[in-house]
Each structure stands twice: as C-alpha cells, then as structure tokens.
Design brief:
The protein is an alpha/beta fold. The chain contains 4 helices and 5 strands; from the N terminus they run βαβαβαβαβ. Helix content is 29%, strand content 17%. The longest helix is centred in the first third of the chain and has 14 residues. The protein is globular and about 60 Å long. InterPro entries: DsrEFH-like (IPR027396), MSMEG0572 (IPR023847), Sulphur_relay_DsrE/F-like (IPR003787).
C-alpha cells in the first residue's frame, strides 16, 4: 500500500496560487462584439453552464455579447423548468441555467433560441422561453455566424450531444 505524505488540507486552506495571473485582463474596445453558440444538452455535463458563466464574464468585460442556442441548447432557455412546480428548485443548483440566463440578460446580454429546435425537436412553444430570450428562424443560426465573421467578433462554439 502506498504511503501518503503530507497533511490533509483543512477547509479554507489554499492549495494552489490563485493570485498569479499570466495574461492581461483584456477589456472590450468600443463596439467589440462576442457570440457564444451552444448546441449542448443542459445538465448532461458542465459545458453549457460553464459557457454561460464565460458569456457573462465576456459581457462584463464590455463586449456586446449574444448567446445563440440551437439544437438541444434551446432547452437551457426553458421557462417551464422546476419541481414540484414551475420555478421551484428541487435541489441546490437545479435552476442554475435559468438563473444564469436571467443574470446574463439583466446585464445586457442577448439570448436567441432556434425555433426549429424548439418546435420540431422538443415541442417547445415561444411562450415556453424565459422572458427576454428571442426566438429566431433556423436559418439565422448560420447568418449569426456569418454576421460575427463580418464584424470580426469573438466567437465561441460548443457542440455536445
């Protein structure tokens, strides 16, 4: 059996250097934009939520930030989530997607959801979206990508199944 060397850390102990930052803290220049495209299943991994946190951070750096949800990503914008009632949090973190999207939009971020994925794949109605999420035509997913290219915007794309 291997011998473990060292003391177990206690709550509140620091085990890595959180103060050393290697890159400049970049802030957006006037008019810079960012697009975060997400084709990811909510709650099937951390990618969707981490991208929401990243989008919020990008927005706070001054970028005009848009989040484009398509495929299973539209499920992240469901206003009908909750248990035992809509909006109720069944366990800590259960409503983190809804809460983070709300924070992102309250701070000026824009969220779009593909109507094709909503209706054809998941039977979602536009009224099932979180207030402030804008439904969009399925052809707008590509055109948003092309718009971002023309604008020279920062683009993050995530695909998970």
């Amino acid at each position: 059996m291997a011998q473990i060397i060292g003391e177990r850390p206690n709550t509140g102990d620091v085990i890595v250097d959180y103060d050393e930052k290697l890159f400049d803290d970049i802030q957006a220049n006037e008019g810079e934009k960012a697009y975060i495209f997400m084709h990811t299943v909510p709650y099937e991994g951390s990618v969707g939520f981490v991208n929401m946190l990243t989008a919020t951070r990008i927005n706070r750096k001054g970028f005009d930030t848009s989040m484009v949800l398509y495929g299973p990503g539209v499920l992240m914008a469901s206003a009908t989530r909750g248990f035992p009632t809509v909006g109720a949090e069944a366990f800590p973190g259960h409503m983190n997607f809804n809460n983070q999207l709300g924070t992102f939009m309250k701070e000026g971020g824009k969220v779009y959801a593909c109507r094709f994925a909503m209706a054809a794949l998941y039977g979602m109605r536009e009224t099932d979206l979180i207030d402030g999420v804008k439904p969009m035509h399925p052809l707008d997913v590509l055109d948003a990508t092309l718009t971002a290219r023309r604008e020279g915007a920062l683009v993050l794309q995530t695909w998970t199944l």
